[in-house]
Specification:
The chain is mainly alpha-helical. It has one domain. 67% of the residues lie in helices and 10% in strands. The protein has seven helices and four strands; from the N terminus they run ααααααββββα. α2 crosses α7. It is elongated and about 85 Å long.
Length: 249
């Protein structure tokens, strides 16, 4: 391979690597982090309100009192979807145009109601609102693990020698595993065996704490990249469900 080809291959690899390293220093990363952090409490409220409203509305619709409840619930879904479009645009950079409801084509009230109930925009919004809880649970779990683990390791040099502080890996008892490979050969057995032993490890020196801090920075870097990728998935999901057909209104 020519030297110019090697340089060209390296130049194509460096930009993605540079993007991964710069994620913690980009404002958009923290917009994604805010969006994902809000997804859990919002998802609980969306799911509870929507499920309760639909359940009551459907069960009481035989007495007609359920129809206003259903209308209010679906209206709430529409309002929530409108707010979520704004959040997805501002925090995730999603490309979500305002959808068209097609009401201008229906002159009578009955036709307008049927148009709203049959439009993909309403059902896409309902799917998005109900799925928000699952997104929130996953995002909350990853955020808590990444931030708690990464920040605690990153700050190890600040508190490793404080009275009463213990920094390191602590196991109730050592873990011992034996890995073996045995191959039959005629009347003999030929094999090789390794013993892996994992014990507790406590940081008691500054170099050890600095090494732990470097590992914490690596955990934060990987975690923020994972969360950024999750934000990209959320943006695509919002584009798919909150504006089906991507019609300009």
């Amino acid at each position: 391979m020519a030297l110019s080809d090697q340089v060209s291959d390296i130049s194509t690899i460096l930009p993605p690597v540079r993007q991964l390293l710069l994620v913690p220093f980009q404002l958009r990363t923290y917009g994604v982090l805010l969006y994902l952090a809000l997804a859990f409490p919002l998802g609980i409220g969306y799911f509870a309100g929507t499920v309760v409203g639909l359940s009551l509305g459907i069960s009481l619709s035989v007495f007609l009192i359920g129809l206003p409840i259903l209308a209010a619930t679906l209206g709430g879904v529409v309002l929530v979807a409108a707010a979520e479009r704004v959040m997805a645009r501002q925090l995730l950079g999603a490309d979500i145009p305002t959808p068209s409801w097609g009401l201008s084509e229906a002159s009578r009230l009955r036709d307008q109601v049927l148009t709203v109930l049959t439009t993909p925009v309403l059902w896409g919004s309902l799917i998005f609102v109900l799925s928000k809880l699952a997104v929130g649970v996953a995002a909350f779990t990853i955020i808590v693990v990444v931030l708690s683990l990464g920040l605690s390791l990153l700050g190890a040099p600040l508190y490793y020698d404080m009275p009463g502080a213990s920094v390191g890996l602590f196991l109730p008892e050592p873990i011992r595993r034996e890995l073996s490979l045995v191959i039959p050969w005629d009347q003999f057995e030929v094999g090789i065996s390794f013993i892996v032993r994992l014990t507790s490890w406590e940081v008691s020196t500054l170099p050890g704490a600095l090494l732990l801090s470097v590992f914490g920075g690596f955990v934060l870097l990987i975690g923020l990249n994972v969360l950024t990728a999750g934000g990209w998935i959320c943006a695509r999901w919002a584009e798919l469900t909150l504006s089906p057909g991507r019609n300009e209104g």
